[in-house]
Structures are given as structure tokens and as C-alpha cells.
Design a protein that fits this description.
The chain has about 375 residues and is α+β, with helices and mostly antiparallel strands. It contains 16 helices and twelve strands. Bound molecules: 2'-deoxycytidine-5'-triphosphate (DCP) and magnesium ion (2 copies).
């Protein structure tokens, strides 16, 4: 039943991937800003009397069994001395941005997974004589220097292994899996360490006596596909330490706009308002081509007057139920009122964020509501 994967292995591209992940992220930042807390069990989360939950906690608190997503009330039962601090998302966002500045000193191939972690592809990097291990150490050093908190890093030939590696020596650790160590490392790795293997899959595997990746390797792609559908093939590859997913660099577009210069100056508000529909149609048509990747978070208008002075106005999406059309119309009128002169050019635009960012924002806002809004 043992599959021969020698050929496959040769096809796998040899990359150098670093996965970086902050240690006890929110909690470390809070302790940094209030050193009196250092050494004590500390969590960041919602108040226990408000049915709050723990976002994260430091390693001192983890010894008591406290963990992310646990009810704060339960956490306090396990650890009565636990200090629970409300989150400050803007501070965490700033810290994340500083870490990314450090990353960019080494590579442009950066894929953020959340505020606190990212994959870096340093395959072609000439820094540190091309040593991914040294690069990871420098990055860890610089982040500590700039932020006063620690990150852990994993270095491996692919994303899957680098993420496992960054967790291996946490906190403040570095773990390297070189290509020739992959086989041994993965052999004893518990299947539940595979990303995507949750409780249900782990149980299904355990029932067949499969606890480690080594044991999983006894089964063919066909068998695994029969049990797990398309995830089966994925499992087959991962249990061999193979993962050819690329680091998804975000070459982000930040905005999209359309504008039109008119043959005759538009002299009245009616004439200006009449232009919203055609401009908006064009903007929406152009947005359609990228709507899978991006989401709009602001509307922008531009008005250039006949004397070539110009003004722009931008605002977050309407919360009062106004349609997109109404919102752009209102913004245009407000912009025009700044000059109240004949107009030679009008523009409509949107500020964009990638869908992932949006999801992240939603997640943060949810937390903010949970933790802050209720207080
Ligand atoms: N987070 C959250 N709710 C969760 C999990 C995490 O709000 N259920 C937040 C708080 C964490 C941050 O995301 O500080 C990063 O999550 P990690 O899983 O990386 O956990 P930590 O960085 O806190 O700890 P460590 O990475 O050291 O295990
Ligand atoms: Mg972390
Ligand atoms: Mg993380």
C-alpha cells in the first residue's frame, strides 16, 4: 500500500519560507505597556460579568488552563488571580504594521494571515548570505528592538511546515526544518497538527489507528480520497511534508476611480447631478472586474472647477441607508458647495481593501463590540 513518492518529491519546488507569529500577541503588548503586570497571569478579553470571552492570555495564565475563546468567567474560575484587560485594537494594528516594515527589509513576498502572523518567502533573498535561518533571527531581533515584544519563527521549505515550526519553540523561539529533515520531522507528527484536521477528521483517523503522519502515509491517495473527498489528496501530500502553495503577495490596489472632463462647463447643480448616473455606471462596470478580490470601504468624489482649482471629498459608506447613488450625489453637492463655480471635471471613486482585510476588520469590529461596545 506504500506509495512511492520519489518522483513527486522531485517536482516539488524548493522554497525557503519563514512563518512569523507574535507570542501571546495582545497580552504581550498590554504587558509591555504596563510592566507591573509582568510575571502575573494576564489575559486580554471581555469582562466576566458581561459574558465576555478571552481573546488571548500570556503563558503564565496558560499554565492554569486558560486559553483563547474561553469564557472569561470560566478563566477566572481556573485562575482567580487572572488580570483581564480590555483590548486596544489600534495598538495591535500599529504593532503589526511595524513588524511588516521589518519584513519588507528582507522580502517583498509577504502574506499576512492575521495581524499577528505572516508567511515570508525568502527563496531568492541575498540577505544574510541567503540563509533563511539568519534572516529569521534578524527579523526576530529587530521586532523585539522596535516593539519590545517577542515573535517566534519557523523556517521550512513550505508554508505548511513553516507554520508548524513557528509553533514548535514558542514563546520567543526559532525552529528550522531543512529539506533533508522534512521526512523525519513529519513521520512522527501527530495528524491533528495538520491544518484543517479538526476534531472530526482526527477522530475518523484515530478510529483506523492513524495518529501520526507516518501512519497516515500507509494509505494511498485513492483510499484517502474515498474517506475524505478532495481533502484526502491534500492529506496525502501533507503527510509527506509536501505543500506547494505559493506565498500570496498582495499587490494591492488601493482605489479605483473614473472621471470626465466636460466639453462645456457644468454651470448648475442640476447639470452636475445628472452626471452621477453615467459616472457611477462606469465605475461599477470597472469595479465588477475586481469585485471578487476587493471591497469598497469609502466613496470619493472629485470636482475640478473651471478655474482649475479642485477639491476632493471622501467618506465611509453611508450608515443611514442611503443608496450608493444617493451618497455620491450628496458628496458631489457638498464638494461643489466649497467652490460654487462652474465645473469642468467630475470624478467618482472608491477606496478599496482586499476581502481578507475586510474579514479581518469585521472580526475586529465584532470583538470591539463584544469587548468595548458593551462597557
Ligand atoms: N485571537 C482572538 N481570539 C481567538 C484567537 C486569537 O481574539 N480565538 C487574537 C488574540 C491573539 C491574536 O489573535 O493575541 C493572535 O492569535 P494567536 O493564535 O497567534 O495567539 P497568540 O499570539 O495570543 O499566542 P501564541 O501565538 O503565542 O500562541
Ligand atoms: Mg501568536
Ligand atoms: Mg497567530
Amino acid at each position: 500500500m506504500m506509495d512511492s513518492n520519489a518522483n513527486l518529491e522531485q517536482k516539488v519546488i524548493q522554497r525557503k519560507i519563514i512563518h512569523v507569529d507574535f507570542d501571546a500577541f495582545y497580552a504581550s503588548i498590554e504587558i509591555r505597556d504596563n510592566p507591573k503586570l509582568s510575571g502575573r497571569p494576564v489575559a486580554v478579553g471581555g469582562a466576566s460579568d458581561r459574558r465576555g470571552v478571552i481573546a488571548t492570555c500570556n503563558y503564565e495564565a496558560r499554565r492554569f488552563g486558560v486559553h483563547s475563546a474561553m469564557a472569561s468567567a470560566q478563566a477566572l474560575r481556573l485562575c482567580p488571580d487572572l488580570k483581564i484587560i480590555p483590548p486596544r485594537f489600534s495598538v495591535y494594528k500599529e504593532a503589526s504594521a511595524v513588524a511588516h516594515e521589518v519584513f519588507r527589509q528582507y522580502t517583498d513576498f509577504i502574506e499576512p494571515l492575521s495581524l499577528d502572523e505572516a508567511y515570508l518567502d525568502v527563496t531568492g533573498s541575498s540577505h544574510c548570505r541567503g540563509s533563511a535561518t539568519l534572516i529569521a533571527e534578524e527579523i526576530r531581533g529587530k521586532i523585539f528592538q522596535k516593539l519590545g515584544v517577542t515573535v517566534s519563527a519557523g523556517v521550512a521549505p513550505n508554508k505548511f511546515l513553516s507554520k508548524i515550526a513557528s509553533d514548535w519553540k514558542k514563546p520567543n523561539g526559532l525552529f528550522v526544518i531543512t529539506p533533508d529533515q522534512v521526512n523525519d520531522f513529519i513521520f512522527d507528527l501527530p495528524v491533528k497538527k495538520i491544518h484543517g484536521v479538526g476534531k472530526v477528521t482526527a477522530e475518523k483517523l484515530n478510529k483506523r489507528g492513524i495518529k501520526t503522519c507516518g501512519q497516515l502515509r500507509q494509505y494511498s491517495i485513492l483510499e484517502l480520497s474515498r474517506w475524505f473527498g478532495s481533502f484526502g489528496e491534500h492529506l496525502w501530500n501533507l503527510s509527506r511534508g509536501q505543500d506547494d502553495r505559493e506565498v500570496q503577495t498582495s499587490r494591492k490596489r488601493k482605489s479605483l476611480s473614473v472621471e470626465h472632463t466636460y466639453d462645456h462647463d457644468l454651470a448648475s447643480l442640476e447639470e452636475i447631478s445628472a452626471q452621477v448616473t453615467p459616472l457611477l455606471e462606469e465605475l461599477q462596470a470597472r469595479f465588477k472586474t475586481i469585485e471578487k478580490e476587493y471591497e469598497v470601504y469609502k466613496h470619493v468624489v472629485k470636482v475640478k472647477f473651471a478655474d482649475f482649482t479642485q477639491t476632493t471629498l471622501e467618506e465611509g459608506l453611508p450608515v443611514n441607508g442611503d443608496s450608493v447613488f444617493d451618497h455620491f450625489s450628496t458628496l458631489l453637492i457638498r464638494a461643489w458647495e466649497r467652490g460654487k463655480r462652474p465645473v469642468r471635471l467630475l470624478g467618482l471613486g472608491v477606496r478599496l481593501q482586499t476581502i481578507n482585510d475586510e474579514k479581518l476588520m469585521e472580526q475586529l469590529e465584532l470583538f470591539e463590540k463584544k469587548f468595548i461596545g458593551l462597557r
